[in-house]
Amino acid sequence: MCVVKANGYGHGALSIAKAIANKPGIIFCIFSIDEALELRRWGIKNDILVFSRIQPDWLDQALDNDLWINVSHQDDLQALKDYHDKTGSCPIMHIKFDTGMTRLGFDGWEAESVFQFLCENPHLPVEGIYSHFATADEGDLSYAEFQLNLFNKIIGKANEAGIDFKYVHCSNSGAVLNLPHSYFNAVRVGMLMYGVAPSDEVAMDVDVEPVMSFCGPIVNVRRVKAGTQVSYGGVYTTQSDTNIAVVQMGFADGFPRPWYENGYVSYKGQNYKIAGRACMDQFMVDFGDVEPGDGDEVLIFGKKDGNRIPVETIAVEIGTTTYVLLTAVQGRTERIIL
Question: Do 27 and 100 fall into the same domain?
């Protein structure tokens, strides 16, 4: 199960989906009905699971487009029963249990009543059961083990009720790396699919490379004197005569603004200091005596043409996560498939 929600974690959901749709057994997971419908409009025919809580006003669209839906509340079950009674059909359902995220999902103590409802309504098309780990990408796995134990107990109660789910899934990227005994018969791979570590606490013992290189073009270079202030607030002052380049990319496009303090870009295999605060549309780089050309690209993160800056490095330095950095890539960013 390949998670392409939030525009494929900033990579471009459609491009990612098209690249792997024909691989055996690929199922896509997204969050909203609109994301799912967009994939369908572009010809993606794979099964698609919608993570958001169901809304009665889009059940027709889910059914017409063969979308799988998340069922996470007693009201959802009743709404789907009513829908089936009215239409004679219903979208395929995956039952979600909350085992420790305190987010969407039935509580564990509701398992018997949920399974009793399903047994009393065998016409409802239930194919999957799942949960989600809160700490599987951390060094301390005790809470993840607690969640897994609870999920196994819920599965046991389903078996006792005579319910056999086609798909049982709990593992996210962290669990794929950290908890191999949590795989069941399907896993949901998100960040790891893009070649990025889900956190700095989990070992990347897999051979993957970052899928995306985030780059920006140089649009102006000027020679300035020592003592020249650069960008808003004048927090950066040149220490000597130097070349300051303007890169046409800003925080509105996904550039991580706090990175300017100790950050750098890569150009022709060398790193160069970001000069001052990033602006909404542009930022500046101190190139010293190197004179880059207009139109040349600098690398912000990723790996390209001998340049490499792991997005994980930036996340640690500025105290955020790779999820935040990658999903922020938006705005006027052009996605080029190589």
Answer: yes
pTM above 0.90, yes or no: yes
25 phi and psi angles, rounded to 5 deg: 75, 15
Same domain, yes or no: 219 and 178? no
Contact, 143 vs 134, CB < 8 A? Answer: yes
**Ramachandran angles phi, psi of 39, nearest 5°:** -60, -40
Domain shared by 126 and 227, yes or no? no
Q: Which of 153, 166, 232, 268 is catalytic?
A: 232
pLDDT grade for 153, boundaries at 50, 70 and 90: very high
Q: Distance between CA 188 and CA 120 in Å, rounded? A: 30
Give me the number of domains the chain comprises: 2
Instruction: Spell out the alpha helix ranges (H) of the chain.
Output: 5-9, 13-20, 33-41, 59-64, 74-87, 111-120, 142-160, 173-178, 311-318, 322-327
Catalytic residue chosen out of the listed positions 5, 194, 267, 272: 5
CB 133 within 8 A of CB 172: yes
232 labelled catalytic: yes
Residues 95 and 167 in one domain: yes
Q: How confident is the model at residue 307 (pLDDT cuts 50, 70, 90)?
A: very high
Which structural domain, as residue segments, surrounds residue 280? Answer: 214-327
User: Stretch 202-215: mean pLDDT, rounded?
Assistant: 91
Residue 256 pLDDT > 90: yes
DSSP 195-229: T--S-TTS---S----S--EEEEEEEEEEE-TT-E
Give me 288's structure tokens: 């010293």
Contact in structure between 1 and 94 (CB atoms under 8 Å) = no
Interatomic CA distance for residues 192 and 323, integer angstroms? 11
